[in-house]
Amino acid sequence: MASPNSPVTSSEPATPRAQGTLAARLGYGGLLPIIGCMALTLLLPDRAGSLLQLGNLYVGSIFCFLGGIQWGISLLDETMPTLALPRLLVSVLPSLWMVLALQFQPTVTSLALVLGLVGLLAFERRQPVIPTLPAWYLPLRVRLTAFLSFGLLGLALLSQTVAS
Fold it and tell me: pTM of the predicted model, to two decimals?
């Protein structure tokens, strides 16, 4: 046992609950850039378009990260390659979707990214349960997708409102 003054080090893996708590904190913390863009849009209305574009790039990067998660999940169970194939194929779509979405006017880009986030979540919810996936993952994913989607749509609406 470590002394009270020494740093805690352990070779034991974190408990699933601790991992879920950390993931939730990081996930909810990841909403701060969108909230920041909203606040800055109110403070600097002449920069609304640039802030919306920044929000789109941020959400697009998260969308690509979620595609990477699908890639990783597909690698978890090597015994069922036919179940992994759809996840592998879908894992590359977010990056392609984002590049395409960024070609449009920023408000349209926001809508396209939200549709992509919701579509990827719908895909995930229809996939067979992977036993090694933590129980907290999908509920957290649903909440973060909802918050991020509403946040980006709110930023797009705010951007349009202050610009006019």
Answer: 0.85
